[in-house]
Amino acid sequence: MKNTNNTFTIRIIYLILLIGFTLIPSNVFAANTAQEYPEYIIQQGDTLDLIARRFGISLDELQSINGLTDPNSINIGQRLIIPGLEGISGLLISETIQYGTSLKTLSRQYQTNLDNLIVLNHLTSPSETITGVDFLIPIRDGVEPLLPILTLNKGNTAIEAAIFTDISPWQLMNLNQTSGTWDIIPGETLYGIYQEEDENDHFQTGVTEISFNALPFVQGETMEIHIETDAIAEISGSFAGDPLVFLSENNTDYYMFYGIHAQADTGVFPLQINVNFSNGGEQAFNQLIFLEPGGYGAEYVTNVPDEYLDADGIAGEDEFLEPILNRVTTQRFWDGQFQYPVDEPCIGSSFGLRRDYNSGNYFYYHTGMDFPICTAQNWNVYATAAGQVVVAEELFVKGNALVIDHGWGVYSIYAHLSEFNVKVGDFVQPGDLIGLIGNTGRSAGPHLHFEIDILGTPVNPETWLQQEFP
Questions:
Q1: 366 and 447 inside one domain
Q2: Most buried among 195, 214, 235, 364, using CB within 10 Å?
Q3: What is the pTM of this model?
């Protein structure tokens, strides 16, 4: 027999649901299904065309969704809706990648999805977080990024990390997007929210900052790396396979000076830094960095006696200087900016120029900068910074030459002199008279060839005359 009571009940429920759905305003469904687009804030130098190309959309599409009729009518700070980024919302900001930054640390710091970073920046490999490159990051509008609060050292556990940072293990794992305490390994940086009054109570032993004098790196320039730590450490590393030497005067600030060859290959190269602390902690950083062309021109040098272009003579001078210039004095003698080596610093030839000697008899590049005699007829040559004289003799190419060791692998060279005022072993101060301009060695006229070498590699000396290291 059919159960009429059950059938009646079902019909009543159906009728109620039907009436309920009918009474719900249609704009509720529209609000729930409307796509939420991310927004981008226009920066200095942006154009509508550049923005469209950066996000892989058409200019017409970008103009249409933002109601723009004139592609030139945009202003710095203006917000643009960016279509075509499915699943990505919030505010799109542009950040310059700092050394040591990875996709994982970016996603932790800005509390964003790793896949969104990959899509936004058109990445094919996690190693493409190249130092110095601008990176797009989606953030929730008004939400401040997290701060690095702890570097987990060898032997520490994630539970200890939670105790040190005064937050629960669950919250620490959640903020750092890990599936559990087993997901965090020594050397990783964890992110969180500092309570200002408790900042000094947080436990951290490790690298507190890594900075560079300039990014990207450039052919012929000086690479300076400064690493700050909160404990005594031994630091080593390499760039493009070449070893790096770090030195310190106070066991908390470590410096490294490296000469980038003026003819080095350009492109992207790995920079590896390893830090071993006296308490057993370890940290390692490995990231790609751009090396850009120096943009050096060319010049013809004539009237040079052919005997000074002899390959054996050149090789003999290089063999003599190599062990001297590759010696690292662990004490830094110089203090502050280097001064000009002459009274009248008019420049006859700049560093890095590709040189053609005697119409094709020899090709090389200019390893320093030349100061000729100009209007003052002043022939004096001065020490540019404090240091010890390590060479004072006649050489094949450089003629009468002085070499001064300034410590930490940095040397200054003064070539083609007519006479010396110092000898090997003398310690000089900036401004001391060390010789007179001459025309000795491979020289086409009276001038001073001034050079700065870092562990045997000539670098742009003008940089040392205009900037202060460290």
A1: yes
A2: 235
A3: 0.76
